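hi! just following up on the protien thing from before. the input was this:
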Amino acid sequence: MQTTDTLLETWKSGIAAGEIVPILGPDSQTGSVDESGAPLPAQGRDLILAMNDGKPMSPKLMVEFSRAAMNLEFKRGRKFIETFLTKLYETHAWSATPQMRWVADAQPRYVVDLNRDSVLLDLLGGAPHALIQAVARLSKADPRYRAYKTTPEGYAAVDEDAEGDALASGALPIVFKPLGCARPQASFIASDADYVDFITELMGGFALPPFLKTYRKGKRYLIAGVRLSKDTERMIVRDIVFDADPELVVDGPSPKELRFAKQQNLTVIDAPLSAFWG
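and the predicted 3d structure came back as:
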């Protein structure tokens, strides 16, 4: 059995070489705080309370953020959801957790961040990279993503016809944000309807740019910070790690996670994230 130090060394070298793709999630942000010391509401109950002015919603809605977001979207409009998430993630200086710093320090060639915040983008700073941002159904965008690249002036749209082949060959590191983000133009996968639409498009191949479909072939994946007990997370991860045998770091895997691991040939490492990134 490999030690944590050995695993970290193996993962870091594989990430730097572009052989291993880290998949980060809400648990990767445990411990992130803003300038006042308030914790980042990354998921579930905390995020729902932040969205609803600190007031609990009905028990049925408190089960999952996407369900609560759908309810408030109906009542207050889509702009309310977009404005809330943009303000939450862009008007606070959220700190980076040890795991997020470790990933950024590894200089990944491809990383999947299932968080809606901009912490990883801040850590990358001005380092050249391509950003793939998921697009919600109401944007009426087809396909369901936007592809950007860094420039001295900020992000600019990728010309996939002219630049796709180079990106498919690894010309730039790639950051994929499947749940969206506020930069450079706010777009989030938040409500139940967003998830249904995005997952459908992802399964059909329309939520990934062709250059990423090519580049991802033959990669290995390190899933650390994402619980896979819910259908939505499992479906997104399954289609992202297409044709791969990933490793999953999870503390006390649930029966659903163990079943999914067996189906997808995941190697489960039963340990808390703090065992590696304390």
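The chain has a mean pLDDT of 94.
The CA atoms of residues 129 and 172 lie 5 Å apart.
cheers
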